[in-house]
Design goal:
This protein is of the alpha/beta class. The chain folds into two domains: 200 residues, Rossmann fold (3-Layer(aba) Sandwich); 105 residues, Methionyl-tRNA Fmet Formyltransferase, Chain A, domain 2 (Roll). It is 25% helix and 28% strand. It is built from eight helices and 17 strands. The longest helix is centred in the middle third of the chain and has 24 residues.
């Protein structure tokens, strides 16, 4: 059976897992495109993307163009004579010139059931808005974001405990398998394309660090979903005595306490730190003090009882 010569474009951990599946397959990844190196932390240390690290370890040539419209880069890409380009969480819009460069086209693995949650944060959005399921869509790419024809879908349940991290891991397993199945269908010319219904399009918004500050005027149920959606990044937090305290796990207590202020600590014990919201109670079970490790509330509440004093409005 024919094997495909692949150019892979991706950046994040989700991308790297799919790249690894291709490397382990009988197909040949002949080159990788990933975002330029970034600097982070106090020392502004240069870090490589997970895709770049994996490519180096497997001796795959790497491109890190700043501008995908650069003609020199495009000529180099064309000279590779690849059969297909596969894009997974790359982070940049691919120009039409590149999309038309490969005999078998350019396909994208997207972690949602398109057309729901097009855009930058499909996994986070599915948790934040309380979806019961999500999935993987593989599409033939066009020059508009996530709007190409669908060539494969797989569904995945979302549990009430799923965070973005745990759901990503579920979707990786589904996506790897689905991607290899699609490549076999491309080779055997058995792909069936389906147009997306534009009436059902919902866009996911980009997430910023400032969005992670908990607003107690929201309902407890919404706050609990926000905490799971923003785990592992940017991680929800609240301010107490000028300290930013990160919240990693919480539950909802379905009780209404109208005699307490919104944002008031109404109970603080081994079971959690209970905070009154605009509707029902948010019970914080795991948190992280500045410079410390993530801890269960039951393990720190005795030593920090004065910090989380009942009656404090945060």
């Amino acid at each position: 059976m024919k094997k495909l010569k692949i150019v892979f474009a991706g950046t994040e951990y989700f991308s790297a897992k799919h790249l690894n599946a291709l490397i382990r397959s009988s197909h040949k990844v002949i080159s990788v495109i990933t975002q330029p190196d970034s600097s982070s932390g106090r020392g502004q240390k240069i870090t490589f993307s997970p895709v770049k690290i994996l490519s180096i370890n497997n001796h795959i040539p790497i491109f890190q163009p700043i501008n995908l419209n650069d003609r020199v880069f495009q000529k180099k890409l064309l000279k590779l004579n690849a059969d297909i380009m596969i894009v997974v969480s790359y982070g940049k819009i691919i120009p039409k010139k590149i999309l038309s460069m490969f005999p078998n086209g350019c396909i994208n693995v997207h972690p949602s059931l398109l057309p729901r949650w097009r855009g930058a944060t499909p996994i986070q959005s599915s948790i934040l808005y309380g979806d019961k399921n999500t999935g993987i869509s593989i599409i033939n790419m066009n020059d508009k974001i996530d709007s190409g024809t669908i060539i494969h879908t797989e569904t995945c349940d979302i549990s009430s405990k799923d965070t973005t991290q745990s759901l990503s891991l579920k979707l990786v397993k589904i996506g790897e398998k689905a991607l290899l199945e699609v490549l076999e269908k491309i080779i055997s010319n058995t792909i069936i394309e389906k147009k997306q219904n534009e009436k059902n399009v919902i866009l996911s918004k980009k997430i910023h660090k400032k969005d992670a500050l908990l607003n107690w005027n929201l309902e407890a149920e919404k706050l609990e979903r926000l905490i799971r959606a923003f785990n592992p990044w940017p991680v929800c937090y609240f301010l107490l005595e000028n300290k930013a305290i990160k919240v990693w796990q919480s539950t909802v207590i379905p009780i209404i306490k109208s005699n307490f202020s919104i944002g008031e600590i109404i109970c603080s014990n081994q079971n959690g730190i209970q905070i009154n919201t605009s509707h029902q109670i948010l019970n914080i079970e795991k948190l992280q003090l500045p410079g410390k490790k993530i801890m269960d509330v039951k393990n720190i509440i005795t030593s920090k009882k004065n910090l989380f004093k009942v009656g404090t409005v945060i």
